DNA sequence: ATTTTATTATTAACATGTTATGCAAATGAA
DNA sequence: TTCATTTGCATAACATGTTAATAATAAAAT
């Protein structure tokens, strides 16, 4: 089994990015079609979900929470606004900021889809086991933390950005 | 902290797809820039890596190994072929198939990048711990297996799809 | 042999990922 | 205030993700 020779580049079966990608695909495989039936992409759903958790977020904050880059989010916001699932208004304290909120239609769509999402995740929890799922979350959080820590050398030192 | 009410839709911090996505981003964050310096995307690198492992793959097989869909792969192949990093020839037993191989230039590029990749993954292994990394692989493999198993009810029966 | 079906690969069309650029508004330094 | 810098957001340009449609070849069925 463990014929992987040390210090060699691992095969795809043991590539961490590929393993993470495969797991993500497996988890989403069942849910994406049900989103499509409602005319939403997975990313659009993330935005609606974030706005359901908290209304009136600006676009930068929304990007952080949904893990979307600004250019993608900018297009998604435009799309959802045209479909009147969200509403965009101007911040009163900062004229650069847009403030986003769900419309009634957007809220309604969320309420329709959310139960299916809950059921889906419950199914995965049941199949995989609650304990293992929690362990997986812990490991994922930890690997992110360790990697982030190792590159945040100081942020006040000059050693963070030079040599662009 | 753990105010997540049961049977509710989890917040983003406890969404499995998001956790997997974040982990993947963290792992790749350091490596993608070094690929870009060599004019390659992560996906193009996957293709080159797969061809280094085994030459003469057809495009379908390449897609399976690199976890890329045919349309994406079709464009990537065209791109890499134009840059003469790969060579495309016709299968002699099946006129539909293309057979792909690395050119000398492609092989050279692989040899230049591979050590950096090895070093990167060694760094992650060191930071995160070998045991934990193996545990993470196991959990990821297992969740994929469990999910796949649950949807492969029989494939001949009709009871595999309804009630999404 | 002819028809049907399945496989291989491409292209179309649209959404998103990603880096670079641009611009307007806010902030800070002089 | 004036000027430089930063921040918030949009757009450009190109690569990829994704579903659907298409063309060519192969395999199977009749």
Per-chain topology:
Two copies of one chain form a homodimer.
Chain A lengths: L15 H14 L1 H7 L4 H12 L3 E2 H8 L3 H13 L3 E5 L7 E5 L1 H25 L1 H22 L13
Antiparallel strand pairs in A: 1-3, 2-3
Chain A binds a DNA duplex (30 and 30 nucleotides) through helix 5.
How would you portray this structure in words?
The structure is a homodimer of 164-residue chains. Chain A is mostly helical and 164 residues long. Chain A has a single domain (15-148), classed as Winged helix-like DNA-binding domain superfamily/Winged helix DNA-binding domain (Arc Repressor Mutant, subunit A, Orthogonal Bundle), CATH 1.10.10. Chain A is 62% helix and 7% strand. Chain A is built from seven helices and three strands; from the N terminus they run αααβααββαα. The first copy, chain A, has helices spanning 16-29, 31-37, 42-53, 59-66, 70-82, 104-128, 130-151; strands spanning 57-58, 86-90, 98-102. The first copy, chain A, has a three-stranded antiparallel β-sheet with strand order 1-3-2. In chain A, a hairpin with a 7-residue loop joins strand 2 (86-90) and strand 3. In chain A, helix 3 (42-53) crosses helix 4 (59-66). The radius of gyration of chain A is 20 Å and the shape is globular. Chains A and B meet through helix 1, helix 3, helix 6 and helix 7 of A and helix 1, helix 3, helix 6 and helix 7 of B. Chain A binds a DNA duplex (30 and 30 nucleotides) through residues 32, 36, 41, 43-44, 58-60, 68-76, 78-79, 94-98.
